[in-house]
């Protein structure tokens, strides 16, 4: 699954472009909406009705989707707009997507940071056309459509046009140029041409009154003739969209190859920030793909906020924070620290302008913030950035917003009672109090830090001392077993609640299914009773969702990093592959892919604690470019291991660390401070096929509360 798409993207750029079928969840593909079991086919073939812009990446059911401004090359009458045609000979590269429609048109798209460029090569036809549909939005599924509220389209002649559609409270503007010499340019409404018309205005659109509208270019095409359409986008009006177009594409000249090459170089620069040696071709492909997926979102639209007038970083498609705060945000902080800090500045500005730190934030207005999932997660990323000594943020002002945000939504009940349901929010809020306390103490506000740390210790209220697990409650996409093994700030006390190391490891072993019978996976349209039986197993769901990302690493805190090694190695080997279905769950805006990147390097960031856990890497050598420095992970005794079904009947992998050194000095602990990684250095790991006692005695730090 994964729910990713092959469309053209730029690293953390604002715009994407992809073939559009209307399928769940990105608008590309063949499948109907599905959150459990095997997905049901919506179409029997891969097809498209055109090419849209702004796609999600790896999300699941997030209510609404973009797919705005559909561009359709046609050799049919305008009445056929909306019909889908089969896609053939698809080709996807970072920043580029191409396919043939079975109408005989070759279609290519590429994107820059705020622009998209389309190139269509037509067969010989007396009436070829390129149709721009500004009414398009959302998915072709039940309740999946997005209807504009207001719109304006203006045909300016000589291959230029502009328009604005207000979608979900956000004004999206586009300024376009088309190289269509000798072709006519016309507006259309409800699939009817408006000869001589230059402007369409819609002051109030409803679901019941919406009719498609836009403009088109039509004329005679010779076989092999190409047409280029250049589009600049903005959330601040057509004039800024025009400036964005000219800044990236220049004025009036073909720009497809220029943008394609520039974006390819940008991708190469970003992907090259993680280098590996060794590994099978398939494993290297999965790693590169995971790194690519980790750098698609969030979308940065600098100086484009539609909600406040000042300039500065503006980020959206943080969908959702609960998926990315543990893995992807630490990856951004390592390899693109400037963008990571821009994201934090943007989140602080959202809190300042709109009243709270969002758990999710899309290109939409309103309360679509995913509060059911989690609370106060931005605090961990802010605390980590401060601990790393990052600049560019007014930390005192950030602390003010961190503290205020702790009292919002579920935080008010937590403040008054030290316990809130859903019970996972108790863990979130306690952890956020701890993270905020670290910033307060570093800024010498000791009284505030003491109070926050005291409240942060109230995580214990979430656990049942009789079972050592979370109390019964409601749980979002999981159960109390999934959430009971989160990496808290006081894991020593947490482990004591389960009866000490032995009891905690026994519970983890049960969760991961040691000694249990194999489980039959659900099929198409599983019934509630079937799903309930599966959930009642209280088992690891195989990285299928956010709660399970960090559970394998909990063994480190009980002195069993060898157990972590076995589970992580199995996940890297069996749950990821190069074929369709090569991800074990939704990629969730890069959260899952970032987990794969870190795990392949033998590291796991403990968000909010300035800490990395250490494990056997999947490659003989790796180098991570962290800012201006380089952190190298090298091994001795590494043994190549195939992935997926190719991994059957192989020799035992060298998946256990036997000994380690950091910058030439012995390292007896299975963890590093994030500062050690970010300042650069060399970690050497001696590997072997049998579990050792390395890292058993030196536990990762626990931050206990003392009065």
Automatic annotation (TrEMBL):
Signal peptide range in chain numbering: none
Positions of the Glycosyl hydrolase family domain: 240-689
Glycosyl hydrolase family 92 N-terminal domain segment(s): 2-234
One example GO MF annotation: peptide-N4-(N-acetyl-beta-glucosaminyl)asparagine amidase activity
Ranges in coiled-coil conformation: none
Gene Ontology CC terms, in alphabetical order: cytosol
BP GO annotations: carbohydrate metabolic process; glycoprotein catabolic process
Pfam families, A to Z: Glyco_hydro_92, Glyco_hydro_92N
Domain of life: Bacteria
UniProt protein name: Alpha-1,2-mannosidase
Source species of the chain: Actinoplanes siamensis
